[in-house]
Amino acid sequence: MRLPVYLGLLHGGERALAESFRQVADGHGDEPDVLSLCRTLADQCDRHESALGPIIDRYGEQPDDEPERFHAAALTETRTGGLGLLRDLQDVYLLATLVDMTWTLVKQAGQALRDDELLAVVAACEAETAVQLRWLSTRMKQAAPQALLVAS
Amino acid sequence: MVDRIADIWGTRTPFGRGELWPVRVDSKLEEGLDEADVDRWVQSACVLCSNGCACDIAVKDGRMVGIRGRSADTVNHGRLGPKGLFGSVPGMQSRDRLTRPLIRVDGALVETDWDTAMGRIVDRSTALLAEKGPLSHGFYTSGQLFLEEYYALGILGKAGIGTPHMDGNTRLCTATAATAMKESFGSDGQPGSYRDIDDCEAMFLFGHNMAETQTVLWARVLDRLAGPDRPLVVCIDPRETEVARHADIHLAVHPGTNVALLNGLIRELFVNGWIDDDYITAHTIGVDELRSTVERWTPEAVADTCGVSAADVRQAARIFGTSERVLSTVLQGFYQSAQATAAACQVNNLHLLTGKLGRAGAGVLQMNGQPTAQNARECGADGDLPGFRNWENPAHVRELAELWGVHVDKIPHWAPPTHAMQIFRYVEQGSIELLWISATNPAVSMPQSARIREILDRDGLFLIVQDLYLTETARFADVVLPAAGWGEKQGAFTNVNRTVHLSDKAVDPPGEARSDLDIFLDYSRRMDFRRDDGSPLLDWTGPEDGFRAWQECTRGRLCDYTGISYEKLRDGSGIPWPCNDEHPDGTLRLYADGHFPTELDRAESYGHDLLTGATVGREAFSAMRIDGRALLKPAPAIPAHETPTAEFPLRYTTGRTAYQFHTRTKTRRSRQLDRAAPSAWIEISSADARDLGIAEGDIVRVSSSHGEIVVPARVGGVREGCVFAPFHYGYWQDERSGPDGRPSAANELTRTEWDPVSKQPLFKVAAVRVQKVADGRGPAPAPTTAASRPSDPSVPPTIGGPDAEVVETVRPTAPPLTPDDHRDEGAA
Ligand code: SF4
């Protein structure tokens, strides 16, 4: 069974997402809401990662067959200015969609397995990932006109 | 005669539950005058807090010479508080009023005429619009203009220029009230009424130091407390306020832990079966998620996190759960603290779970700070569309386009209107190059003062400031416009329980000062803003035109003003909206039928996630099929971001005193008020003072990671581990815009952070260190009469003396009746 591959993807994805939120928080600390919310959301990703722990203990996790697929992974540096913020948030958004879909697919497997413990973890985390996506989108939409039309 | 500096709330007129609050008319005239000397009385209402006390202005020889409460008004039943009595008239008549426009020439502000000043504005504005477009313009207004002025500003900004960058300082004081109501009920709009104080069995004051923020409202509570069947009072506040001193239970929570406490109270309601299942089923959605969210908050867990006793949590919940009629009020202790909207929504949840809403004595008052904050929110001058319209609802935006005769895409609605803190950020980044500030003083009132001063001083920013006086903020301006104020212009405004008052013009403004409305209309004319049919965008000739236009804008909306006119507002009482054909006398309480404006086509907002502020969106909102029910929105409690450390071990909160308003632009011009609370101080607990070797009146340095203030210390009733500073004390009395080595403004220490949903700045979360720098020369300049009462009994009490004597006439007439009383009479 290949579920361990997807558990590995999820594990790595949440970790990369946590790192990226922290990177954006530090790099765009002059945007107070970005600073505080990205930290809060990074903590949330950490909790997702530890919630996965007992599941991975049972099924194990396997490295991805195509590691290059995740190489867009964590942001390692941030850009500056209004446009830079927009680009960085969009990078995080891409990563978060990947994580979001991975939760969905793991949930499908969990349902087929009738694994209640796994499903409980998915239920707790997947909704939060969805909110992370919504926040990123809300914040980008707010920033876009100013960044694209008037910022220098 | 009563010394109303020494006795803030005045003579008691006790009354019992269900009775009408007796009338007491308070009046104060200039020394040597009595009522026989007054030429005429001009109807108005006080603009020195959100309470909206109705008053008459005494005029003699073309000057305002005093003030008297209006006995016929349902808000104050004749009473006025110290600010209204002593601050209203002197606040307007100081010799240093601005009387001519100023422009910056070679770095200095010099007097000029209106044509030159407005010409400069129009030139810059036109050039920027051509070069960079509407997003280069930002407007930051007030909670103290009249509704016609806000509506004019809203129209010219949204349909004339087309910028989303419009907000008011209401963002600092009431944004969370509005947002919490939108999240829970689908729209802004105060559910309860002051009248509920008369009928309740228990009152919960959540972070609301009512005794000082709305002194006349507190007098009403004191009168109930002095009468038969006194209501039980529960106070949630880290300070030993007057409210706490009268409370049956005082929950002195650690700042920043409000959601944990509320989740605990809600859990007790579930566990003990104090919920109203029928109401929940018929009128709400979301109960299961709420139940599971609060599950972990046992009284013990709350005690641990909030620093209160588990028994008190149980007892407070019991009072809420077992009293038939409970009134809750909420203010800055919640709105300016961590998880502001989330906490305020949990108060709504207490009432929704128990069905204690929309009935006599059972309701919620999500309070405001400023006199006309409600109108800033209604009229589109802050981050909302006029008439509680929803920027995510294309039909609502279309309605506005039709009213204003412009293409729908002229009105910015692609994203939420920009909130104040973000507007200042865009100025900081240089993408907003024209900022127009009216009737507010961000150099002192916004968090992290040093940063705000840098922003206002930025090269390349064209700053317009319109005010009564040369404030700290005005000193940075390129153009200063002298505004007419209260008593010098006409307009209507709405207080915190939806009561609309008319304020008539009593005297001419000084010199060349003009009303804010005239200034906005003049700008619109000079910019040649037009409707699509070629006619002028704003063709009003005066405030009453504006009021009529506003009525059209509110037709059929929750805040329906169509049944109110200037005529109807004269002589009797103010009128609470909605007032229309169906409710010709206005409406005392909203949601009596448990039906809420959450239908897709009515909702003012489709809501947000309370943790992040992510928008829910039209589709998801529609899919929930809320259809007129209220939303029980849960919120997990999260730890505060800035917690005390070894370097900054104490928590810092800011707030107000009963004797001053905002940055003292008006109240400092009053002898009596200025003497009662002349300069800055901080408050510290006896235990912390002992540890730090600080005695009453010692000069201390309070520092945070953002700045410092050096002021005398009052050793008094704050919670151990906390420091309190009043936020009124800037620098203009010394003709400075900033500290110049003598920092006193509370916001030197606060940091820039805001609630993710309401975007209200968090003024109550900083961590600080306190050190003694010098021995005091006498007690701190803090009043002894209220929350800043000293531990040391030898500090002389705050008194006003003969100068502060006020005539109080007790029970001269029967109490005024509310719309509901009229209806009852009609039925009988
Ligand atoms: S309570 Fe408020 S509105 Fe009433 S007199 Fe005092 S300051 Fe004015």
UniProtKB/TrEMBL annotation, chain A:
<protein>
    <recommendedName>
        <fullName>Molybdopterin oxidoreductase</fullName>
    </recommendedName>
</protein>
Automatic annotation (TrEMBL), chain B:
<keyword id="KW-0479">Metal-binding</keyword>
<feature type="compositionally biased region" description="Basic and acidic residues">
    <location>
        <begin position="819"/>
        <end position="828"/>
    </location>
</feature>
<feature type="domain" description="4Fe-4S Mo/W bis-MGD-type">
    <location>
        <begin position="39"/>
        <end position="95"/>
    </location>
</feature>
<dbReference type="InterPro" id="IPR009010">
    <property type="entry name" value="Asp_de-COase-like_dom_sf"/>
</dbReference>
<dbReference type="GO" id="GO:0016491">
    <property type="term" value="F:oxidoreductase activity"/>
</dbReference>
<protein>
    <submittedName>
        <fullName>Nitrate reductase</fullName>
    </submittedName>
</protein>
<keyword id="KW-0411">Iron-sulfur</keyword>
<dbReference type="InterPro" id="IPR006963">
    <property type="entry name" value="Mopterin_OxRdtase_4Fe-4S_dom"/>
</dbReference>
<feature type="region of interest" description="Disordered">
    <location>
        <begin position="774"/>
        <end position="828"/>
    </location>
</feature>
<feature type="compositionally biased region" description="Low complexity">
    <location>
        <begin position="776"/>
        <end position="792"/>
    </location>
</feature>
<keyword id="KW-0408">Iron</keyword>
<feature type="region of interest" description="Disordered">
    <location>
        <begin position="733"/>
        <end position="753"/>
    </location>
</feature>
<dbReference type="Pfam" id="PF00384">
    <property type="entry name" value="Molybdopterin"/>
</dbReference>
<dbReference type="GO" id="GO:0043546">
    <property type="term" value="F:molybdopterin cofactor binding"/>
</dbReference>
<dbReference type="InterPro" id="IPR006657">
    <property type="entry name" value="MoPterin_dinucl-bd_dom"/>
</dbReference>
<dbReference type="GO" id="GO:0046872">
    <property type="term" value="F:metal ion binding"/>
</dbReference>
<dbReference type="GO" id="GO:0051539">
    <property type="term" value="F:4 iron, 4 sulfur cluster binding"/>
</dbReference>
<dbReference type="Pfam" id="PF04879">
    <property type="entry name" value="Molybdop_Fe4S4"/>
</dbReference>
<dbReference type="InterPro" id="IPR050123">
    <property type="entry name" value="Prok_molybdopt-oxidoreductase"/>
</dbReference>
<keyword id="KW-0004">4Fe-4S</keyword>
<dbReference type="Pfam" id="PF01568">
    <property type="entry name" value="Molydop_binding"/>
</dbReference>
<dbReference type="InterPro" id="IPR006656">
    <property type="entry name" value="Mopterin_OxRdtase"/>
</dbReference>
